[in-house]
User: Which sequence fits this backbone?
């Protein structure tokens, strides 16, 4: 185990050590109704034009517009044959190019005119063959499901990282929040509660069925802090004590070919370590493509300690963001956060009005 006085490992180095044995997990297929929120394993394109031909947008009679040009109640136009009735979404019969409303026909006479294409959707107007529907590594959103279903897909391949969250000691108030953060990143959490006992912690870390293990609590240097000792029994501790504020007592290691992340038990520190290290790990396991950064202006200055990477929780207020704080942030303030700013170790912070990168929670 690392001594309390040993040098802290830079965040970038700790992340590199954590990711070195992280490989994308095998894809699996799920029905569309269960795909939202997961990370797409493959890119999907439209297999054919949608619609495949001229299609009705509303119920009515399929007609050739040129045949009833100028038709009105005062100048009805007799049609050579009764037009076919079509429902919305149906293909128009050959030789027709418009939809005449029901009240526009009296017996076999048109009493209203329509223009070519009126009430219809042309072939390929929704999608053309080869249009991109989903990109590998993209988070599947509800909007994607509409296009996928319209193109005839009934399932989609995803990558989902299985994360075992080993909760040490008691009480546990953090696992629901951490499980939600993990799920939003593309992971599936299995929570296991164990006492502050190295052997029990080691057993939970080494058990099969997980792609990575997060150990919550017991990472400090108190008499009941035994998580690093448990990791050392199950595998090895690569770094314990990080230049991350809050989160200085976090650690990284590995058990077999499985990455292990040690999370401090304090809420602000645990959340900071998951955001700075856990989410990038899950992204590596799911081969997720990170979305473009959001830039915003801070309404108050951010101060930071040179030499430490610092997570500062923020609240979005219109086009600006309000820094809430980082280390030792009270829960009433922490639960107001909807994003964070990562201050690099070479900076002392940001003056008021600075435009910074904001990562949503």
Assistant:
């Amino acid at each position: 185990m690392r001594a309390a006085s040993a040098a802290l490992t830079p965040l970038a180095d700790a992340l590199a050590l954590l990711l070195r044995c992280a490989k994308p997990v095998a894809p699996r297929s799920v029905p569309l109704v269960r795909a939202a929120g997961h990370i797409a394993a493959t890119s999907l394109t439209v297999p054919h034009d949608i619609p495949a031909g001229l299609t009705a947008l509303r119920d009515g009679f399929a007609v050739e517009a040129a045949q009833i040009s100028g038709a009105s109640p005062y100048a009805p136009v007799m049609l050579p044959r009764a037009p076919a009735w079509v429902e919305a979404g149906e293909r128009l019969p050959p030789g027709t190019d418009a939809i005449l409303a029901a009240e526009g026909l009296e017996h076999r006479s048109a009493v209203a005119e329509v223009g070519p294409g009126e009430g219809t959707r042309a072939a390929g107007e929704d999608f053309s063959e080869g249009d991109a529907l989903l990109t590998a590594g993209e988070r599947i959103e509800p909007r994607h499901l509409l296009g996928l279903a319209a193109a005839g897909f009934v399932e989609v391949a995803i990558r989902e990282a299985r994360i075992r969250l080993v909760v040490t000691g008691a009480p546990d108030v953090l696992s629901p929040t951490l499980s939600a953060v993990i799920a939003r990143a593309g992971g599936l959490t299995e929570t296991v509660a164990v006492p502050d006992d190295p052997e029990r912690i080691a057993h939970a870390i080494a058990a099969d069925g997980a792609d990575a293990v997060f150990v919550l609590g017991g990472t400090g240097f108190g008499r009941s802090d035994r998580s690093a000792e448990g990791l050392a029994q199950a595998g090895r501790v690569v770094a314990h004590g990080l230049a991350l504020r809050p989160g200085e007592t976090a650690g990284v290691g590995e058990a077999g070919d499985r990455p292990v992340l040690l999370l401090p038990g304090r809420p602000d520190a645990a959340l900071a370590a998951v955001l700075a290290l856990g989410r990038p790990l899950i992204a590596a396991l799911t081969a997720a493509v990170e979305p473009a950064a959001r830039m915003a202006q801070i309404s108050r200055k951010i101060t930071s300690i040179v030499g430490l990477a610092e997570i500062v929780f923020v609240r979005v207020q219109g086009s600006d963001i309000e820094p809430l704080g980082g280390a030792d942030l009270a829960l009433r303030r922490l639960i107001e956060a909807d994003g964070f700013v990562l201050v690099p170790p070479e900076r002392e912070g940001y003056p008021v009005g600075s435009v910074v990168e904001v990562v949503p929670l």
